[in-house]
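Would you kindly consider the sequence and fold I have copied below?
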Amino acid sequence: MHLGMRRKGPDRFLNSPRNSTETTMKASRRDLLHMATAAVLTGGLVPAYAQEKQPIVLGCVMPVSSSWGQDVMKGVDLAVKTANAAGGVHQRPIKVITYDDQSKPEEGVAAVD
């Protein structure tokens, strides 16, 4: 290879000389104490957060007053019951809030607002 030419692609890093000023990271006792303290403090917060298990709330805006909407709501209820019986999503229960828009666009917009 000519001295003025550079390798291209992933081969350009093969057999490259190491930087002579390369240093290794050393941790002092103070650094280790700080890391251990942070690990203990954050480890104490995780179980408290995990116990909350607030539900995942999903909104469902559809014409529930129609027969089609009632059939869909039965399917939604079945899916939610099945998922919650299996432990929910990431161990959090699912809750569905429904709003009947009566097949009217104005009601659908009002539900979202």
The two ends are 68 Å apart (CA to CA).
